[in-house]
Amino acid sequence: MSSTRLLSDVSLLDDTLDQIDVATVSLDVDPDVRCLLQSVDQVHKVSVPFRRDDGRVEVVTGYRVQHNDVLGPYKGGLRYSLDVDEDECSALAVLMTLKCSLLDLPFGGAKGGVAVDPDDLSDAEHERLTRRFAEELRKVIGPNTDIPAPDMGTSERTMAWFMDAYSTQAGEPRPGVVTGKPPAVGGSRGRAAAPGRSVAIATREACDYYDVGLEGATVAVQGFGAVGQHAARTLHEWGADVVAVSDVDGGCYDPTGLDVPGLCEDASSGRVNTAGHRTRMLTNDELLALDVDVLIPAAVGGVLTEANAPDVRASLVVEGANGPTTPAADRVLAANGVPVVPDVFANAGGVTVSYFEWLQDRSRRRWSLPEVHGELESKLLDAWAELVAASESHDVTLREAAHVVAVGRIADAIGYRGV
User: Fold this and answer.
1) Tens digits of per-residue pLDDT, 29-60?
2) What is the pLDDT confidence band of residue 13, given thresholds at 50, 70 and 90?
3) Is residue 3 very low, low, confident or very high in pLDDT (cuts 50, 70, 90)?
4) With 80 as the cut, is the pLDDT of residue 15 above it?
5) In the chain, helix, strand, coil percent, each to 5?
6) pTM for the whole thing?
7) Are 2-174 and 194-338 in the same CATH fold?
8) CB contact burial 22-60 (16+ within 10 A = b; e otherwise)
9) Do the Cβ atoms of 6 and 86 come closer than 8 Å?
10) What is the pLDDT of residues 354-392, one digit of tens each?
11) Which CATH superfamily is domain 2-174 in?
12) How high is the pLDDT of residue 5?
């Protein structure tokens, strides 16, 4: 089933739509662009039956929201979470459109997933669910139409199952139908680490711009999953002092710097292993208030709020998670002179290397890891230069500047293509 839906009543999008308003005014573009960005092209809601290991058949609900394809095929993650619903997918699809535009990638935004608890799935159940979900979405996705990727609760293995199911239905290999696959089946080297690496690059560039020396800079990372671990490891290699990290249960702090490689030993668990480290324990709230040069919220959305933003003592904030700073917190941080490098830029390494993977699948040529790193660096540096230029010329925050750049590129495309 598909439908077109106006997004003005979706609370998760309110701030984004406000930022789009600011961008259209700043750029003096046709107000109709805002109207187009407020609407999603299609919403697909499907029932996904799958068999449990005990023989029971369970039916869960899946979604795929396709926002806007004026720049190219739809692109966005698939997540397995009990929180998945149409509103969440619609909001994230719009943000993906803006992210792809900001990074000058030839994609539009999409998002999807299944309302299920991934921790309640055995490997066999996860596979059966994924293969059936691929069947349900078969008519609305494709290498030139809509290219999913892993997200919360899904992985490289999920994408391999999804790709195999789609290829079986198509009667031929179609590795380009998804990105974020294992390299053995057409995935790109460096894809898994790309979001964290882009956070590290964003931190490096922001430190340089705001005259915070990266060498010896103190960094606190909230959220030690894939993004937080890779960001911490890269910044540690570049000479920064990662002094605090945390997971859902709390974290550890050492003002002289943590043993980051040691903390990352059990990277697959996503949990902070403090055994053998001389640290003091702290809560996630305490970590956010540490006196550090850089704070990286890389866990979940909405952790920086109007209530705790006044306690932030970091010189700058680099968003590793999606939406970790609420609009009210943004205003507090801006008033206190704390720059925020927005998620739409900082964690864009995932979709950028997904684009590289898509190119590799189409050309049937594998890139080396140095090639991937070099191309990612080039894309991010170009986007950073545009971001800073827009911030300075329009006298707006980096987040507002990101929307100015993204909306401007979309407006140009709409102008040339027409409605």
Assistant:
1) 777 777 888 889 999 999 999 999 999 999 99
2) low
3) very low
4) no
5) 45, 20, 35
6) 0.90
7) yes
8) bbbebbebeeebbeebbebbbbbbbebebeeeeeeeeeb
9) no
10) 999 999 999 999 999 999 999 999 999 999 999 999 999
11) Leucine Dehydrogenase, chain A, domain 1 (3.40.50.10860)
12) 54
CA distance 289 to 287: 5
Cite the beta strand spans of 228-339 per DSSP E: 241-247, 250-253, 280-282, 294-297, 316-318
Q: Helix axis angle, 156-170 relative to 123-137, nearest 10°?
A: 50
Q: Of all helices (H) and strands (E), which one includes residue 143?
A: none
Buried b (16+ CB within 10 A) or exposed e, 337-373: ebbbbbbbbbbbbbbbbbbbbbebbeeeeebeeeebb
Computed over every residue of the chain, the mean pLDDT equals 90
The pair of structure tokens assigned to 4 is 């077109």
Spatial distance between the Cα atoms of 75 and 178, rounded to a whole number of angstroms: 9
Contact 288, 312 (CB under 8 A): yes
Structure token digits, residue 128: 């059966």
The one-letter amino acid at 8: S
Specify the amino acid at residue 391: S
* pLDDT greater than 90 at residue 61: yes
Instruction: Report the share of the chain in percent with pLDDT over 90.
Output: 72
Bridge-partner residues for 62, per DSSP?
46, 114
Q: Which tokens hold the place of 209?
A: 């711009």
Distance of CA 331 to the CA centre of its chain: 22
- Lookup result for tokens 């935004």: 109
Q: Structural domain boundaries of the chain? A: 2-174, 194-338
pLDDT at 99: 94
Give residue-wise pLDDT tens across range 82-135. 999 998 898 889 889 999 999 999 999 999 999 999 999 999 999 999 999 999
Active-site annotation, residues: 111
Assigned CATH for 194-338: 3.40.50.720
* Amino acid letter for position 320: G
Instruction: Say if CB 216 and CB 239 are below 8 A apart.
Output: yes
Gap between the Cα atoms of 17 and 403, Å rounded = 10
Q: Are 418 and 105 in contact (CB under 8 A)?
A: no
Q: Which residues contact 279 (CB under 8 A, 6 or more apart)?
A: 252, 253, 254, 258
Residue 56, classed as helix, strand or coil, is coil
What value does the mean pLDDT take over residues 276-303?
Answer: 86
